[in-house]
């Protein structure tokens, strides 16, 4: 049994969807960020970073979405959630996921977690104003250069797809119109129809 720690509206949704796709046995535990549960002594023993997601396995806990998604894909090879037999294509998937993690997520976080980078309220306001531009630029690159077909890798579904779906879901809150990116929007709608996505969203609502 795997245990995924999550908070609503976070990138943990990508790992949750991957677990729902995988067929692996799992449970989810919700952290109350408003009450600072992510900084509790109990949770910091699981993930000293005090963030989500964290996935507890029989060998220990994993953090970072890119690592967790790759682990799920490799732990459930029959689910075919990654091109495990093609090192180059697997690396392309990892490169895309790393871009979402290191660049797109950070651009989004500048609007909501400005205190990570600056102390002055004027600096926070400046970062917030920049978010629509930076997120728009990121998704323009995804739209024009990175989205290979119906799914991130073309016609082959992979754990990159729930990650893109999750972050694309933040665009409206970042004042970016997803309709400006028709291929991304089509991907988002296609993902919403998948049973694993519906299952994960229902489980997060019920947790």
UniProtKB/TrEMBL annotation:
Cited PANTHER family: GLUTATHIONE S-TRANSFERASE GSTA, GLUTATHIONE S-TRANSFERASE-RELATED
Record's signal peptide: none
Gene3D superfamilies: 1.20.1050.10, Glutaredoxin
CDD domains referenced in this protein's UniProt entry, alphabetically: GST_C_Beta, GST_N_Beta
Organism of provenance: Neorhizobium phenanthreniclasticum
Xref: InterPro entries: Glutathione-S-Trfase_C-like, Glutathione-S-Trfase_C_sf, Glutathione_S-Trfase, Glutathione_S-Trfase_N, Thioredoxin-like_sf
Name used for this protein in its record: Glutathione S-transferase family protein
Native organism taxonomy: Bacteria, Pseudomonadati, Pseudomonadota, Alphaproteobacteria, Hyphomicrobiales
Residues of the GST N-terminal domain: 1-80
Domain GST C-terminal: 86-207
């Amino acid at each position: 049994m795997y245990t995924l720690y999550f908070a609503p509206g976070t990138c943990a949704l990508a790992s949750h969807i991957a677990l729902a796709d995988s067929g692996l046995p799992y449970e989810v535990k919700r952290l109350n960020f408003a009450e600072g549960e992510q900084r509790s002594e109990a949770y910091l023993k699981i993930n000293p970073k005090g963030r989500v997601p964290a996935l507890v396995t029989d060998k220990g806990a994993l953090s970072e979405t890119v690592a967790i998604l790759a682990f799920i894909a490799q732990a459930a090879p029959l689910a075919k959630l990654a091109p495990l037999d093609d090192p180059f294509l697997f690396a392309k998937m990892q490169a895309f996921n790393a871009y979402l993690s290191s660049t797109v997520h950070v651009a989004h976080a500048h609007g909501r977690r400005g205190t990570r980078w600056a102390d002055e309220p004027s600096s926070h306001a400046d970062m917030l104003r920049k978010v629509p531009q930076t997120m728009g630029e990121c998704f323009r690159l995804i739209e024009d250069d990175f989205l290979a077909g119906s799914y991130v890798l073309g016609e082959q579904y992979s754990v990159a797809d729930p990650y893109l779906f999750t972050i694309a879901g933040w665009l409206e809150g970042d004042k970016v119109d997803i309709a400006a990116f028709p291929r991304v929007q089509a991907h988002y709608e296609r993902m919403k129809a998948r049973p694993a996505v519906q299952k994960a969203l229902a489980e997060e609502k019920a947790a």
